[in-house]
Amino acid sequence: MLEIKDIYAKAGDKEILKNLNLSVKPGEVHAIMGPNGSGKSTMGNLLAGMPHVTATSGSVTYQGKDLLQMEPEDRAAEGVFLAFQYPVEIPGVNNMYFLRTAYNAQRKHRGEENLDSASFLRMVKEKIKQLHMSDDLLKRPVNVGFSGGEKKRNEVFQMAVLEPNLAIMDETDSGLDIDALRVVADGVNQLRSPDRSFVIITHYQRLLDYIEPDFVHVLVDGQIVKSGTKKLALELEEQGYGWLED
Amino acid sequence: MSELNTNVVENQLVKERASQRYKDGFVTDIESVTIPPGLNEDTIRLISKKKKEPEWLLEYRLNAYRHWLTMPTPDWAKLNVPEIDFQAISYYSSPQTKAENAPKSLDEVDPRILETYEKLGVPLHERERLAGVVAVDAVFDSVSVGTTFRKELAEVGVIFCSFSEAVQDHPEIVKKYLSTVVSARDNYFAALNAAVFSDGSFVYIPEGVRCPMELSTYFRINANHTGQFERTLIVAEAGSHVSYLEGCTAPMRDENQLHAAVVELVAMDDATIKYSTVQNWYPGDENGKGGIYNFVTKRGNCLGRNSKISWTQVETGSAITWKYPSCILRGDNSSGEFYSVALTNNYQQADTGTKMIHIGENTKSTIISKGISVGKSQNSYRGIVRVAKSADNARNFSQCDSLLIGKECGAHTFPYTESANMTATLEHEATTSKISDDQMNYCLQRGIPEEEAISLIVDGFCKQVFKELPMEFAVEAKALLDVSLEGAIG
Ligand SMILES: Nc1ncnc2c1ncn2[C@@H]1O[C@H](COP(=O)(O)OP(=O)(O)OP(=O)(O)O)[C@@H](O)[C@H]1O
Ligand SMILES: [Mg+2]
């Protein structure tokens, strides 16, 4: 699914990722943990093709293709989804209209017909119900006036509708109350399948009680310094990152 | 229509309309009678004679003309207006078939003209259009070529006809209201219009009548070297209600053509007039060559208690736009609204806004202006909120937002307030923004390509105004913005 090899990358002018390596196979869930500023979001942004992050060396292969050569909208259409750490507000654009535009743009890229409004609405309502979210999420302008938790839920909702192959979730659990956390975890678990992979960036092993990861990695200063299973997350929770840093 | 279905229709139409740059830029090949260029008293007598006008109207024109000669051209707007040679313009042009003998029914209209309007998306047959029934008055160069649904409207007492016909058939109403809102000396272009005006629309809604359908006028400039000087008058008697729409297009030409219109609205007690414009005059090419000079005076008089006048405009066309649809809030409790989207691209210039003059007690006004500047264009909002001494408890809310796309364009706001009454409440908000990288990245990450993302974000920016438009016009407006935004990237 995803092969990150010897990546060095800059955010703006600053070198952040330094020899990053990660391999994700179809169906796997990888958790990424690590101290503030270690480069977790930068990694997500690099994969999503956000313009302010540029690779200086190394390679990223996604489904056999050179991911770094692809435009961000093409990556999305080919199944790369990033749930943003800080989802942005788009005034005046209703959430459903936004999502339908995205959905149909992705279909167009794949050479598929637009989904008509009625079918789209039906599909979206079904997803909302499965996620135990409220319908009025659809009518409100994208993230405008949403609480922190609502923004995160909206990311999960969008993910559920767009059904990506590779979902990168950047601290989607931060700032959530326990019920919202369950909603987010449900969203991921409902989507889990043998051909879909997740990279879940989090600071809290609590999330991993709900979403069982196959691997846990620790990112420090732009590279993965330790990998393990769920047990590693528990150790980190107890001991912090200090013991890994030198 | 449900929100859902609206969206389907919206999208189809938007796609169709957005596929071409200025799709209304064609010329209709039709013989026309155009008087020679030049402006003097004889020109005015000739126009008046062609229209078989009564003496008082000729006098009105001549007085306006004589006054106009004494007026300097206005220079206070933030516009760079090349000198206009008024002697090089022809002031009257009419398709030949119409010239001598006005067709009384739509069957008699030249098929080429019917085809023109069909092509513009304004079919003149009396069939239900997308969002229901809309009556249309079609003005082609200097004359009205036809008005639909007159019979149905007459049944409820609504008069909807061309201004010229109104002068013949309802002279007492025309005489009573003409120039009561915009005097023939009001400003340079209003005076010019009073002197040489040709056709426009006339609407009269009798007391207590809610006009059963939307009324609309579609203005088309076709002939070259001509100006269009239309004049529209809408009178809404006590307790009546009308929604009126106006659209405008012109061929693509290298020459600049002048359009100087006057619109007067009068609303009596408890009457409501909703006036919507989608202005898509040819804006000129990407190097600033050609395009319409659009100098328009639009004003409504809220004469009666509880009367309401609402202006909504979407301005995407014209090389130069100089336009300030305004409200005089004379009746107690009357209210005025101004909702505006003005988009300029390439070398377009727009200086547009409104005046809200509060005279009555408890009068209320709302101003929502959205300016979008692209390319090398300049876009200004200019507004005055004036509260007279008599206007106890007057309230105004103004919001002026500007969106800049690219680095070479400009956005300016000139909001003036003058209050002579301590009890007035005036609120003003203004923002200038750009489409942020974060917004763009968010769209891209969801798979929405840049051009579509800009259109989406701009559409969202204009939402407050678009929701004031009748559905069909909202579709048209969104499509026009998409076309006008072309080339906004990079
Ligand atoms: N556009 C940019 N220009 C310069 N530096 C940047 C830019 N974006 C991020 N950085 C820097 O890169 C470093 C890594 O940031 P990143 O957001 O990847 O950290 P993180 O691991 O996600 O941290 P957190 O846990 O706080 O979310 C930080 O020092 C940050 O300030
Ligand atoms: Mg981060």
Report on the architecture of this protein.
The complex is a heterodimer of chains A (246) and B (490). Chain A is of the alpha/beta class and 246 residues long. Helices cover 39% and strands 26% of the residues of chain A. Chain A is built from ten helices and ten strands. Chain B has helices at 3-18, 41-50, 55-69, 96-99, 111-119, 150-155, 163-169, 171-177, 188-196, 437-445, 450-461, 463-466, 471-484, and strands at residues 32-34, 93-95, 134-140, 143-147, 159-162, 201-205, 214-220, 231-236, 241-249, 256-267, 272-279, 291-302, 308-315, 320-323, 326-329, 335-344, 349-358, 364-374, 378-387, 395-405, 410-419, 425-434. In chain B, helix 7 crosses helix 8. Chain B is globular, with a radius of gyration of 22 Å. The chains are: A alpha/beta (246), B alpha/beta (490). At the A-B interface, helix 2, helix 3 and helix 4 of A face helix 1, helix 10 and helix 11 of B. The structure holds adenosine-5'-triphosphate and magnesium ion.
What is the overall number of helices of chain B? 13
Structural class of chain B: alpha/beta
Order of helices and strands of chain A: EEEHEEHEHHHHEHEHEEHH
| Strand content range of chain B | 25-35%
Q: How much is the radius of gyration of chain A in Å?
A: 18 Å
Report the bound ligands by name, code or SMILES.
Answer: adenosine-5'-triphosphate, magnesium ion
The CATH architecture of chain A comes to 3-Layer(aba) Sandwich
Sketch the major β-sheet of chain A. 6 strands, mixed
How far apart lie the N and C ends of chain A?
Answer: 31 Å
CATH fold topology of chain A: Rossmann fold
